[in-house]
Design brief:
Number of domains of chain B: 2
Radius of gyration of chain B: 22 Å
Distance between the termini of chain A: 24 Å
Number of helices of chain A: 11
Largest sheet of chain B: 6 strands, mixed
Strand order of the largest sheet of chain B: 5-6-7-3-8-9
Oligomer: heterodimer
Number of helices of chain B: 10
Order of helices and strands of chain B: EEEHEHEHHHEHEHEEHEEEEHEH
Strand content of chain B: 25-35%
CATH topology of the largest domain in chain B: Rossmann fold
Radius of gyration of chain A: 18 Å
């Protein structure tokens, strides 16, 4: 019950506060801009239908990771700076209960991005082609990646104590992790690129999107990629919990 | 005893903050925790709340160790932090309901309404907190602290930034709560608040308690006389009564010294009975401010 209450409060922070609504508006504009670019490419026959759905899925994952990171940092370090974390710590709810509630808030943020992204995936895929593959990939692989970035934000916020530093470091990690979106295939085939891909949850997700959306491979065959994203999720959750438990005030 | 802290030592990131802090607060008492900025008041409060781990010494709150039993302590404790910590998008009623549920209670509208009425926020109950002034936020913070009808309140600067009316309202609420048996730990820089509210004080300087006890006793123990200016409608019938010495007069204002060992509050009735036509009393020196400055300067030197 307290976990749901705190998760509800976090959702309200995102959906009812001016700051949260402004972020969602910005993400909608960014998704619209990418959609226009991708639709233009398909009209010019530069990209095929599966390719643009794959691109859009990767973009939605990156944006989801960004929003989760922002929410994660704000929910700990931001609240701490605004003085609203201590009253929560002084209730009868356990630290783990508060942490789980806040994790619930990040999950709500991801659901909102997922729902926002769905019509864009539908639109760029020429009215629904490859939509189900995109949504499935996003749900199974995007979810652990995005939530992991939320947990990373929470952990950094708790560990460093300031929202600005936590966000800065989190953004560097996110940009590094999402770099495969921008790198060409040849760079990713080098030894360094392969090693990076092997441990990077973002690479695991987009490699799986590639296989499922473009090559029509079954999701069940993506066990390695699923394992990498699940490991990232677990590691980030452990970091968030360890950092949150050491918060004093 | 609601709070009992003995020989508390505490470091943060390897830096010693508290060296030797003592504090004891009883039921129905308002205790003023004083000290310069950075003296360790907030750290002491954080230790009492179980948020920081002491190196040595004992901390007992409501008869329990707040580190070992934080939830049991927090359930019977009301806290107002200096920053308050509010969710601007919520209404006051929703905010209190949220915290009432977190404390495991059911947010009955009448109970929430009662808390809001006690702090004078009933007319603004439906407004979002973002539109509240600082004084209204302080009142809401106090309403949150009172949600569980706790026997102990810990308040950090509850009247800072308030206008005189707002301060007086908060004073009245705190005095009424203390009359009802609630113990209140008040951390503040405003000596007027302490003068009006507190029976006992503790002064912390550089992480050490340099004075603790009854305000009157501490003032009495200081060597400097307590100087007052009295407004009289006629000259006093006699220049000296017991421990009072008349020093000078300037029209209707008369300057008097009271022996430091005496409580001025006990002296005034004697003067009235002795025929002194007093219409106004103002403290000139020898009060809490002088005591505070003397103790903090002495320690700093």
């Amino acid at each position: 019950m307290p976990i749901l209450l705190i998760a509800g409060k976090e959702a309200g922070e995102l959906l009812l506060s001016v700051r949260g609504l402004a972020w969602l508006l910005v993400f909608s504009v960014v998704l619209s801009a990418f959609s226009l670019l991708l639709v233009s490419d398909t009209e010019l026959s530069l990209l095929d239908n599966a390719q643009v759905v794959y691109d859009m899925t990767g973009i939605a994952t990156a944006l989801g990771g960004l929003l989760a990171l922002i929410v994660g940092v704000d929910t700990i370090a931001g609240e701490r700076e605004r003085g609203s974390l201590v009253p929560l710590l002084l209730t009868t709810v356990s630290r783990d209960g508060i942490l789980l509630g806040k994790l619930g808030g990040i999950a709500v943020a991801w659901v909102v991005i997922y729902v926002l992204a769905a019509p864009y995936l539908w639109a760029v895929g020429s009215t629904g082609q490859n939509l189900s593959d995109g949504l499935l990939g996003l749900a199974l692989l995007g979810t652990p990646v995005v939530l992991g970035f939320g947990f990373l934000g929470m952990g950094l916020g708790a560990w460093l104590g300031t929202a600005r530093t936590g966000l800065l470091i989190g953004l560097i990690v996110l940009v590094l992790a999402a770099s495969p979106l921008l790198l060409g295939p040849s760079l990713r085939q080098t030894a360094v690129g392969r090693a990076f891909d092997a441990v990077n949850p973002f690479s695991a997700a987009i490699n799986a999107y590639d296989a499922v959306i473009i090559d029509s491979v079954s999701v069940a065959a993506q066990a390695t990629n699923l394992a990498v994203t699940a490991a990232w999720f677990a590691l980030a959750l452990w970091f968030a919990r360890a950092s949150f438990c050491r918060i004093a005030r | 005893m609601l709070i009992e802290i003995n020989s508390l030592r505490l470091s943060l990131s390897g830096v010693p903050i508290l060296h030797d802090v003592q504090l004891s607060l009883r039921e129905g008492e308002i205790y003023g925790l004083l000290g310069p900025n950075g003296a360790g008041k907030s750290t002491t409060i954080a230790a009492a709340l179980g948020l920081l781990v002491p190196e040595s010494g004992t901390v007992r709150v409501l008869g329990r160790d707040p580190l070992r039993e934080p939830r049991a302590v927090h359930a019977r404790l009301g806290v107002l932090t200096e920053q308050g910590g509010f969710y601007d998008w919520m209404t006051a009623e929703r905010y209190l309901g949220f915290f009432a549920r977190l404390y495991g209670g059911s947010p009955i509208a009448s109970a929430l309404g009662d808390r809001l009425a006690r702090v004078g926020l009933t007319p603004r109950r439906g407004q979002t907190i973002g539109s509240y002034s600082r004084g209204m936020r302080q009142r809401l913070g106090l309403a949150r602290a009172l949600l569980t009808d706790p026997p102990l309140l810990i308040l950090d600067e509850p009247t800072s930034g308030l206008d005189p009316r707002g301060r007086r309202d908060i004073h009245d609420i705190l005095l009424a709560l203390a009359d009802g048996g609630v113990g209140i730990l008040l951390s503040t820089h405003l000596l007027d608040d302490v003068d009006r509210l507190c029976q006992r004080i503790g002064i912390i300087v550089e992480g050490r308690t340099v004075a603790e006890g009854n305000v009157v006793d501490l003032l009495g123990a200081s060597s400097s006389p307590q100087r007052f200016r009295l407004r009289l409608t006629a000259p006093p019938p006699q220049a000296e009564i017991g421990n009072i010495t008349v020093l000078a007069s300037d029209g209707e204002w008369w300057t008097v010294d009271i022996d430091p060992a005496w409580n001025p509050e006990a002296v005034w009735p004697d003067l009235f009975c002795g025929g002194w036509p007093i219409t106004e009393i103002r403290r000139d020196s020898g009060g809490l401010e002088d005591l505070y400055l003397a103790l903090t300067e002495r320690t700093a030197a």
